[in-house]
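User: Can you write out an input/output pair for a complex, sequences first and structure second?

Assistant: Here is one pair. Inputs:
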Amino acid sequence: MLNERKIMVLQAIVDDYIRSAEPVGSRTIARRYNLGVSPATIRNEMADLEEIGYIIQPHISAGRIPSDKGYRFYVDVLMEPSAIPENQRSEIQRRVAAYKHEIELLVQEISKLLSVLTNYVAVVLAPQINLCMIEQIQLLALDEYRILVILVLHPGLVQNRIIRMTNRYDPEALPRMSQQLTSRLQGVTYRDLKASLIKEIQGEYGDLGTALLDIIASELVDSKQEKAFLSGTISIFEQPEFRDLDRAKGLLGLLEQKESLSNLISTLSRYSGVQVTIGHENPVEEIHECSVVTSTYSVGNEVIGAIGVIGPTRMEYANVYSVVEMLANSLSDILTELIK
Amino acid sequence: MLNERKIMVLQAIVDDYIRSAEPVGSRTIARRYNLGVSPATIRNEMADLEEIGYIIQPHISAGRIPSDKGYRFYVDVLMEPSAIPENQRSEIQRRVAAYKHEIELLVQEISKLLSVLTNYVAVVLAPQINLCMIEQIQLLALDEYRILVILVLHPGLVQNRIIRMTNRYDPEALPRMSQQLTSRLQGVTYRDLKASLIKEIQGEYGDLGTALLDIIASELVDSKQEKAFLSGTISIFEQPEFRDLDRAKGLLGLLEQKESLSNLISTLSRYSGVQVTIGHENPVEEIHECSVVTSTYSVGNEVIGAIGVIGPTRMEYANVYSVVEMLANSLSDILTELIK
DNA sequence: GTTAGCACTCTAGGGTGACGAGTGCTAAAA
DNA sequence: TTTTAGCACTCGTCACCCTAGAGTGCTAAC
């Protein structure tokens, strides 16, 4: 079906269109990529490629542009992830390492780098605490009515919340409770905490226990949405396809809805490793004109988050692929290092 | 200088221009706002208003639009903050109260509300921890090498960081240290913590103390930038003046630079209460075509943060003013309530 | 199987002219 | 002295037309 020359023509079309954002004509290909044949021959090949569905003619007297299917073939077969030069690589390591003690800043920095290095929109999902395991629980007396609950989660994440008792409580009881809760709940995931707590505390610790239970169960664990860090939103407007405001609006709207966005990214990155999702393959209508390159990152062997880049389907796949891969790895390395 | 009729004409021009974004002509004013005089008379008044600098003619055969100076007069003299209906007010209170236990979510919610209620870009600066006072310091043993440092700050904010010791330490020493540090450093502001810590720990606590000191001093307090929560960025594009991408880009760029943005907002809100800054009054060039309405919020009597709305100079000042005022107050109330 | 030539299609961009909104000025009216 | 009507003039907008240029598909020749 696809002889060597067709493949070369397809590659030429994809490369040229990614570069120029203009439909690619037969003459352009003949001139710029010396395939050793005339424009007429290339036209014939293009007609075939169009029939298979790899390229599209926006209107009758224009050149061709790749279809989603064409991009898919390009990504799966033709593309070679571009190597990132060693000096740039180490420069990045250096910048990232500077934030390693403050996970939120670290994640934000990764997001910035991701957008700067790709010139597209970058999304980084913060480590998903729901999947993390409890390492320690501490109850700290603040004053007569307020208690500070501290949860230390496995890869070095800390969650805390202040709760207020309606009645006075006995501060003396807190250390013992902390210890017991810790020893009983160690290893439970944050997501399962609520159920486990109810089972554990039920009927013990008297008044304090019951009150704590109520409050903790209802508040501590509720609706902990994943945080998404966004960078490079304006880079959208560098892309000719989004010079039209109405077309950009859909995407912008999606980007502003952090929840939909993090859902999207976590859906797309459900398999570990780098994933490319092209145009209409995307589950959300707003980005049917976009491609998304995602990757998961992990602590040790455990996947705990994802990063992604969103750009037009006419995306520099090779570069984006490499950058996403590298930054996801850096992030994993740093987080893994942290808990050693 | 400004007789009654001139003022009415100015008000008409501002009102109409805010509504329509189209230069306002003499005939329109005569027709829509019945001042009881003919267009020709209004033209004369307009010529005067233009001479004083309150209005501007974009080109010779167009109507007039208010100048920054005109808006300033409008805001200072003519505008009456619009009343917010009681049912809407309580609806908002309800929505906000739902997040009161998680300050970050609360602040985010305020930001959303701010943009929804005004249709402009909303910025909320998270409580500025630098100014908060230390309430309690706790050191918690995580394992043989890692210590969790918890700082409870005055209006119910909690900061924590995990530090790693190069040598083993004695976990038994931590509770006593916590207690001593707390009693000595209570009341010190977060900003001054570093200096105070050095003074306090110096030479005490042996190895552990020195090690802790090094690490805490260098890491805990460093570069704690204020967080800014942004909402309604896309609403920019609803405004006709930003339909031109190139003009919107400057603003968008600013919005993406969180640091500049929080600097801007905190500069503009340096006096407590609601502040309106119009067009070229703004210190940053990117928003010389914009106005900003800001307000501080406080815990008790202490100002600890600010919120703001950014829109075109052609902004619905009356409404924005009220909304900003109300939400800043709500936020203050809730935070103040929290620490009681 | 490849290529040159040709008629055809379509878009982008520039130019034109009518139209409408708005102005300033002058002279008359109040 | 203030207000108003009338008029000539200025621009910006929009619809329209036209052309240049790029690209195609088809056919016939190589």
